[in-house]
Amino acid sequence: MNCKQATRLLSEQMERPLSAKEIIALRVHTAMCVGCRRFGIQMKDLRDISKGYVNGENNNPEK
Ligand SMILES: [Zn+2]
Q: Which positions fall inside the Putative zinc-finger domain (predicted)?
């Protein structure tokens, strides 16, 4: 796996479950590659932020 494939999977895992083979390949790559490890952390943070935003919207008492 190269960095392009790794970042693509890191993005896709937000939208679909990865196969076991993809997860293993991604883990092997991120274990060796700091850039993709950081990218994965950023993707997770972005997802957490957007989740919090959606929850805040749902809890808005004005709606
Ligand atoms: Zn990489």
A: 3-37
Distance 37 CA to ligand 1 centre (A): 7
Cβ atoms of 36 and 30 closer than 8 Å: yes
Domain boundary assignment for the chain: 3-58
- Ligand 1 midpoint to CA 3 (Å): 4
Say how far apart CA 27 and CA 23 lie, in whole Å. Answer: 6
Kindly report, residue by residue over 8-62, the tens digit of the pLDDT. 999 999 889 999 999 999 999 999 999 999 999 998 888 888 888 767 665 656 6
| Ligand 1: centre distance to CA 23 (Å) | 14
